[in-house]
From TrEMBL:
Biased composition (Basic and acidic residues): 129-150
Family of this protein: Belongs to the BamE family.
Pfam families the UniProt entry points to: BamE
GO CC annotation, single: Bam protein complex
Complex formation: Part of the Bam complex.
Subcellular location: Cell outer membrane
Species: Stenotrophobium rhamnosiphilum
GO biological process: Gram-negative-bacterium-type cell outer membrane assembly; protein insertion into membrane
Keyword Cell membrane carried by entry: no
PROSITE patterns referenced in this protein's UniProt entry, alphabetically: PROKAR_LIPOPROTEIN (PS51257)
Keywords: Cell outer membrane, Lipoprotein, Membrane, Palmitate, Signal
Protein's UniProt name: Outer membrane protein assembly factor BamE
Outer membrane protein assembly factor BamE domain residues: 35-102
Length: 159
Protein backbone atom coordinates (compact mmCIF):
# COMPACT_ATOMS: atom_id res chain seq x y z
CA UNK A 1 0.00 0.00 0.00
CA UNK A 2 2.84 2.39 0.90
CA UNK A 3 4.58 1.80 -2.45
CA UNK A 4 1.29 2.47 -4.24
CA UNK A 5 0.96 5.87 -2.50
CA UNK A 6 4.56 6.79 -3.34
CA UNK A 7 4.04 5.80 -6.97
CA UNK A 8 0.77 7.77 -7.11
CA UNK A 9 2.41 10.87 -5.62
CA UNK A 10 5.33 10.69 -8.04
CA UNK A 11 3.03 10.34 -11.05
CA UNK A 12 0.83 13.19 -9.81
CA UNK A 13 3.79 15.54 -9.45
CA UNK A 14 5.06 14.60 -12.89
CA UNK A 15 1.64 15.27 -14.40
CA UNK A 16 1.53 18.71 -12.74
CA UNK A 17 4.85 19.70 -14.29
CA UNK A 18 3.66 18.64 -17.73
CA UNK A 19 0.30 20.38 -17.27
CA UNK A 20 2.01 23.66 -16.34
CA UNK A 21 4.11 23.49 -19.53
CA UNK A 22 0.97 22.92 -21.59
CA UNK A 23 -0.82 25.79 -19.84
CA UNK A 24 2.09 28.16 -20.58
CA UNK A 25 1.84 27.33 -24.28
CA UNK A 26 -1.95 27.43 -24.54
CA UNK A 27 -2.99 30.38 -22.37
CA UNK A 28 -3.52 33.60 -24.31
CA UNK A 29 -1.69 36.57 -22.90
CA UNK A 30 -3.13 40.02 -23.47
CA UNK A 31 -1.03 42.66 -25.20
CA UNK A 32 0.30 45.35 -22.89
CA UNK A 33 0.14 48.97 -24.03
CA UNK A 34 1.30 51.79 -21.78
CA UNK A 35 1.79 55.49 -22.29
CA UNK A 36 0.91 57.22 -25.53
CA UNK A 37 -0.03 55.55 -28.77
CA UNK A 38 2.60 57.02 -31.07
CA UNK A 39 1.62 56.60 -34.70
CA UNK A 40 4.03 57.45 -37.50
CA UNK A 41 1.20 59.08 -39.48
CA UNK A 42 0.71 61.55 -36.65
CA UNK A 43 4.43 62.22 -36.41
CA UNK A 44 4.61 62.86 -40.16
CA UNK A 45 2.08 65.67 -39.73
CA UNK A 46 4.11 67.43 -37.02
CA UNK A 47 5.82 70.57 -38.22
CA UNK A 48 8.10 73.06 -36.55
CA UNK A 49 6.11 76.21 -35.86
CA UNK A 50 2.85 74.50 -34.82
CA UNK A 51 1.15 75.84 -31.70
CA UNK A 52 0.74 73.82 -28.50
CA UNK A 53 -2.97 73.40 -29.20
CA UNK A 54 -2.31 72.04 -32.68
CA UNK A 55 0.26 69.55 -31.32
CA UNK A 56 -2.10 68.50 -28.52
CA UNK A 57 -4.93 68.01 -31.01
CA UNK A 58 -2.69 65.89 -33.24
CA UNK A 59 -0.74 63.86 -30.65
CA UNK A 60 -2.92 63.96 -27.55
CA UNK A 61 -1.81 64.83 -24.04
CA UNK A 62 1.85 64.20 -23.29
CA UNK A 63 2.76 61.64 -20.63
CA UNK A 64 5.33 63.96 -19.09
CA UNK A 65 6.03 67.65 -19.21
CA UNK A 66 9.00 69.53 -17.85
CA UNK A 67 8.69 69.93 -14.07
CA UNK A 68 9.95 73.51 -14.04
CA UNK A 69 8.78 74.74 -17.43
CA UNK A 70 6.08 73.79 -19.89
CA UNK A 71 8.48 74.02 -22.84
CA UNK A 72 9.16 70.26 -23.06
CA UNK A 73 6.61 67.53 -23.74
CA UNK A 74 7.51 63.83 -23.67
CA UNK A 75 5.41 61.21 -25.43
CA UNK A 76 6.39 57.73 -24.28
CA UNK A 77 4.90 54.62 -25.87
CA UNK A 78 5.39 51.00 -24.77
CA UNK A 79 3.85 47.90 -26.35
CA UNK A 80 4.39 44.24 -25.51
CA UNK A 81 2.75 41.75 -27.86
CA UNK A 82 1.23 38.47 -26.64
CA UNK A 83 4.33 36.69 -27.99
CA UNK A 84 6.61 38.79 -25.79
CA UNK A 85 7.98 41.17 -28.44
CA UNK A 86 8.55 44.62 -26.94
CA UNK A 87 8.58 47.92 -28.79
CA UNK A 88 9.24 51.27 -27.17
CA UNK A 89 9.33 54.78 -28.53
CA UNK A 90 9.98 58.16 -26.98
CA UNK A 91 9.26 61.45 -28.71
CA UNK A 92 10.32 64.72 -27.10
CA UNK A 93 8.93 68.02 -28.32
CA UNK A 94 10.37 71.41 -27.33
CA UNK A 95 8.41 74.65 -27.49
CA UNK A 96 9.57 78.25 -27.62
CA UNK A 97 7.03 81.06 -27.26
CA UNK A 98 4.07 78.66 -27.64
CA UNK A 99 5.44 77.31 -30.97
CA UNK A 100 6.99 73.91 -31.67
CA UNK A 101 10.73 74.56 -31.93
CA UNK A 102 12.50 71.16 -31.89
CA UNK A 103 11.59 67.47 -32.17
CA UNK A 104 13.59 64.46 -30.94
CA UNK A 105 12.78 60.82 -31.69
CA UNK A 106 10.66 61.68 -34.72
CA UNK A 107 11.46 59.75 -37.88
CA UNK A 108 11.17 62.17 -40.78
CA UNK A 109 8.91 61.10 -43.62
CA UNK A 110 10.58 60.19 -46.90
CA UNK A 111 13.17 57.80 -45.41
CA UNK A 112 15.53 60.44 -44.02
CA UNK A 113 17.52 59.67 -40.89
CA UNK A 114 15.90 60.34 -37.55
CA UNK A 115 17.37 62.25 -34.65
CA UNK A 116 18.72 59.09 -33.03
CA UNK A 117 21.40 58.78 -35.72
CA UNK A 118 19.94 55.67 -37.33
CA UNK A 119 19.93 55.55 -41.12
CA UNK A 120 17.96 53.34 -43.49
CA UNK A 121 19.95 50.51 -45.07
CA UNK A 122 21.73 51.15 -48.34
CA UNK A 123 20.14 48.98 -51.05
CA UNK A 124 23.46 48.36 -52.84
CA UNK A 125 25.12 47.28 -49.59
CA UNK A 126 22.27 44.85 -48.84
CA UNK A 127 22.49 43.30 -52.33
CA UNK A 128 26.29 43.01 -52.06
CA UNK A 129 25.93 41.32 -48.66
CA UNK A 130 23.41 38.84 -50.07
CA UNK A 131 25.73 38.01 -52.98
CA UNK A 132 28.64 37.52 -50.58
CA UNK A 133 26.58 35.18 -48.38
CA UNK A 134 25.46 33.20 -51.45
CA UNK A 135 29.07 32.83 -52.64
CA UNK A 136 30.15 31.65 -49.17
CA UNK A 137 27.32 29.10 -49.10
CA UNK A 138 28.29 27.83 -52.57
CA UNK A 139 31.95 27.62 -51.54
CA UNK A 140 31.12 25.66 -48.39
CA UNK A 141 28.92 23.26 -50.39
CA UNK A 142 31.74 22.73 -52.90
CA UNK A 143 34.18 22.01 -50.07
CA UNK A 144 31.80 19.43 -48.60
CA UNK A 145 31.43 17.75 -52.01
CA UNK A 146 35.22 17.73 -52.46
CA UNK A 147 35.71 16.18 -49.02
CA UNK A 148 33.22 13.43 -49.82
CA UNK A 149 34.90 12.76 -53.16
CA UNK A 150 31.68 12.87 -55.19
CA UNK A 151 32.63 14.33 -58.60
CA UNK A 152 29.13 13.87 -60.06
CA UNK A 153 27.78 16.98 -58.32
CA UNK A 154 28.40 20.15 -60.34
CA UNK A 155 30.46 22.79 -58.57
CA UNK A 156 29.21 25.83 -60.48
CA UNK A 157 25.50 26.35 -59.93
CA UNK A 158 23.77 29.57 -60.91
CA UNK A 159 21.81 31.31 -58.13
Amino acid sequence: MRSFLILFAALSLGACATASNVVNRVVYKLPTRQGNVIDQKQLDQLQVGMTRDQVKFLMGTAVATGPFSEDRWDYIGYYKSPRGEVSERTVTLYFDANKLNKMEGVQIAGGAADNLGMQPPNAKAVIDQQKKEHMEDTRSQNERVTEKGDPSTPTNQAP
